[in-house]
Amino acid sequence: MSDAFRELLKKVGSGSHTSKDLTRQEAADAMRMMLLAEATPAQIGAFLISHRIKRPTGEELAGMLDAYDELGSRLQPLTSTDSQVIVLGIPYDGRSRTAPVSPITALILTTVGQPVVMHGGGIMPTKYGIPLIDIWQGLGVNFRLPLSQTQQVFETTKLGFVYLPLHFPLTNKLVEYRDQLGKRPPLATMELMWSPYAGVAQIISGFVHPPTETMFQDAHALRGQKYFTTVKGLEGSCDLPRDRTAIIGIFSNSNLERLHLHPRDYGFAGKEVPLESLTSLIAQMQEVLQGKPSELMQAAIWNGGFYLWRCGVCKDIESGFTEAESLLTSGKVAQKLAEITQVVNDIQLAHQV
């Protein structure tokens, strides 16, 4: 048993009247001891559920992120671009109800030279939804690569994917706890904010509940992250909804610009595309990449156009939608996917020789 961890557990697990918030350093220590398994299984399980009940603070999340930065592997800064890297923070437990379009968004952005970093693992409790790694595999891209090879892919194509089971295996030790607890621990909130990129980046985080956005703001302020975007997206992702108003926060140097994007104002209102299976999702995505009209195509243009504008590629949102549609229907995004696939295959082959 870790006596040091026991003291931290006592602080967060003493009940609604006597529990106390951890300092940033204490939260970092707790996260480090859990990742390194210095705390016992009983202590870790008790801490995760107690912390969920207490609710994390921005300062605690900042400390947990400090530990992730200390122990986790990250992609190194690009030297071949003037564009600020975009990191998409998406729930690790995937999607289970609505079809995701974030991989297509990433392809649209990298097609115009905008670097994008994504991250995640395999099938994850508590939702057990379709993880990003499986979607990319279905599209023909194997991101289950050593970090050095992932870095090569990133530098060549501007798309990076940090796959935690290979690049940050310490996190795998905590997956079982998520399964047994049956509830998302505060780790799930912290992961939405983590940047597995060692350089300056624009972090885009999805969320569901409004208090989460305040936690993002507090934690980023403590860590000196001046530029980030929050999206009240589908199932907590960065995907903008089409069946309701998209609520977006653009944070720059402690200033907040609040956007309420109404899909009907731009001709994109509609029902969300249901997620039936990975096979059907890949087939739908392939049709989008072929430029065929569909509801998922509308979602891809809606999201791609917004992010083209948000990244500064297009001067306004309307021109972003026009550009996104053109990139998809012209086959340029499909060509980018083929390029990424070829680069990954060539790098893997070169390391097998």
TrEMBL record:
Residue ranges of domain Glycosyl transferase family in the record: 97-332
E.C. number(s) listed in UniProt: 2.4.2.18
Positions of the Glycosyl transferase family 3 N-terminal domain: 6-70
Assigned keywords, A-Z: Amino-acid biosynthesis, Aromatic amino acid biosynthesis, Glycosyltransferase, Transferase
GO terms for MF: anthranilate phosphoribosyltransferase activity
Any one GO biological process: L-tryptophan biosynthetic process
SUPFAM superfamilies in the cross-refs: Nucleoside phosphorylase/phosphoribosyltransferase catalytic domain, Nucleoside phosphorylase/phosphoribosyltransferase N-terminal domain
Alphabetical list of InterPro entries matching this protein: Anthranilate_Pribosyl_Tfrase, Glycosyl_Trfase_fam3, Glycosyl_Trfase_fam3_N_dom, Glycosyl_Trfase_fam3_N_dom_sf, Nuc_phospho_transferase
GO cellular component: cytosol
PANTHER family according to UniProt: ANTHRANILATE PHOSPHORIBOSYLTRANSFERASE, SLL1634 PROTEIN
Protein name according to UniProt: Anthranilate phosphoribosyltransferase
Origin organism lineage: Bacteria, Bacillati, Cyanobacteriota, Cyanophyceae, Gomontiellales
